[in-house]
Amino acid sequence: MARYFLDPFGCAKNQVDAETMMALLGASGWSAAENPAEADLIIVNSCGFIESAKRESINAVLSWRKQFPKTKILLAGCLAQRYAAELAHSLPEADGLFGNTALGGIAAAASVLLSSGGEEAPAEVPAVLKAPGARPLLSLPGSAYVKISEGCNNRCSFCSIPLIRGPLHSRPPAEIIEECRCLLDRGIRELCIIGQDIASFGEDRPGEGGLPALLEGIAALPGSFWVRLLYLHPDKFPPALPEIMAGDRRFLPYFDIPLQHGSDSVLRAMNRRGTGENYLDLIRGIRAALPDAVIRSTFLVGFPGESEDDFARLLDFQERAALDWAGCFTYSREENTPAYAMGKRVSRSAAAERKRILEERQQIISEKQMERFVGRELEALVEEQFENEEQFEHSEESGGALPAAEGGLYLGRVYCQAPEVDGVSLILSKKNLTPGSLVTCRVTGRAGLDLELRTKG
User: Which letter, b or e, does each residue of 26-57 get, where b requires 16 or more Cβ atoms within 10 Å of its Cβ?
Assistant: First the structure.
């Protein structure tokens, strides 16, 4: 039995691709190796979105080749999809390339790579998973990503996603709902709905009702679980979302809206239809409809033509928006995007300094926003247990907080914390908790960006 080791990079969409490849490989007789030294094949599932991500994926291939000179290496994912021709010549350390438009061929590609003389794959490979919800999961216990669409039609001038993933392609709603049902039957308690832009879901499937109709279908599923919506383009925001969330508490009032900037001139250059004031109105409207709403966003600094005045407008926008969470990225000049040919480029040092300023200010804003949860009773998703206080004290998640004198210590999240990108919750419990379960807790304090919780009783 051939064995593979998968080294995953990139976003949650890439993670679902990795899980799908694992399921297809398993169905074709491959087994997953615990470590690369035991593998016949190392698969690097790459990211090709921005320059730093590309370097990270290529460095992984170079590192694996140095450590395991005789092991076959397959570069898969976005980088392989976007630069297949170039990498075939410039990256001999990779024995093969496999993009992300036809994941059903992964087992055949892997088998051909291992076979002598490049023979055909020894077994036929299924083109698609019969049950997407039955795939292996790389998330922490209790949580799973559900990818409802592929590609994007928004054509932001800086973005390479359409070059990699193509135009919008929405999955059939019934297929998605069945995947959610399967995941819930497996004990999943948090369904994270993802896509390049889930607000655009269904635009290519007229008459099916788009994202609101899909959520109505998910709402018909029985049980206690969370639904978290990630990646909602502000220019496509469905007005019905706040009402849907107000009507069913399983839909978390958490909004991940990539606003990118607060200066109108920069937004126009980014091919965004909205303005800074439009986006502030959107934030105000969400909070008016849902006082408990939590809003996350991303900002892009150093875009071509971004002046000091534009950056000042962004800082003013940041202050007025008072977002719960915000990430910041410096502009990456990507080939074949409209922004690639734009003049008035901002120096890397200037962009890095703007990023530093924005992140320092956001730290203060986010800490203040998290303070409002102290004293409240919230449901928490338990993710893992600390074996002892020493492990807790040396963990990155401890945030400098003191361990409790009694009880077990757990790591988890409440509704205001999305996987991997936000703060976490440190849970103290006198009773044993099961990772992957939902428990009711009281928020007793804040440690930096993290929250401290105690279970009831």
Answer: ebbebeebeebeebbbbbbbbbbbbeebbebb
Global pTM reads 0.89
> How many domains does the structure of the chain reveal?
3
How many angstroms separate the CA atoms of 56 and 386, rounded?
A: 30
Domain co-membership, 275 together with 384: no
Q: In the structure, what pLDDT confidence band is assigned to residue 49 with cuts at 50, 70 and 90?
A: confident
Judgement on whether residues 428 and 328 belong to the same structural domain of the protein: no
pLDDT tens digits, one per residue of 63-77? 999 999 999 999 998
For residue 398, pLDDT beyond 50: no
Owning domain of residue 264: 132-371
Tell me, what's the pLDDT at 123? 40
3-state secondary structure at position 327? strand
**70 to each of 9, 41, 95, 232, 258, how far by Cα in Å?**
23, 10, 11, 44, 43
Q: Which long-range contacts (CB under 8 A, 24 or more apart) does 216-224 make?
A: 216/244, 217/173, 217/174, 217/176, 217/177, 218/176, 218/177, 218/180, 218/191, 219/244, 219/248, 219/250, 219/251, 220/177, 221/177, 221/180, 221/181, 221/184, 223/184, 224/189, 224/250, 224/438
138 and 244 part of one domain? yes
Kindly state the tokens that stand for 264.
């109108």
Answer yes or no: do 335 and 406 share one domain: no
Are 284 and 145 contained in the same domain?
yes
Q: Quick one: which of 34, 4, 2, 16 has its CA closest to 121?
A: 2
Say how many CA atoms lie within 13 Å of 139 toward its Cβ. Answer: 30
DSSP-based three-state secondary structure for 55: helix
CB-based contact 356:183 (threshold 8 Å): no
Separation between Cα atoms, residue 416 and residue 143, nearest integer Å: 15
